[in-house]
Amino acid sequence: ITVTLVNNGTDTDLLTEAKIGDQTAVFVGGPVEIAPDQRVAIGGGSERVALVQEGRVEPGDWTELTLIFTNAGSTTLDVPVISSDDEYATLGESA
Description:
The protein is mainly β. It has strands spanning 3-6, 13-20, 23-24, 26-28, 32-34, 39-42, 49-51, 62-69, 73-80. The strands form three sheets. Strands 2, 3, 5, 8 and 9 form a five-stranded antiparallel beta sheet that branches. A two-stranded antiparallel sheet has the order 1-6.
């Protein structure tokens, strides 16, 4: 998973879970803390990594990504599945 999150709240929040469809991602190093007025990158060469064992998605597909936070609750987004080729080749390097 490659995503950048921004905390516009006044309290630190914690991303505790991420799901692609019915598959739960594993956060390397544990849940992701996001301080107020800060952004946090996951994947894409950052030190924070979220891995999905079997996402069952193919490049060109769209899938549901559900993010679950301690304070903000959960949100589900339809996101594109992008191949790690060409201009996106470096996004999965840290995984």
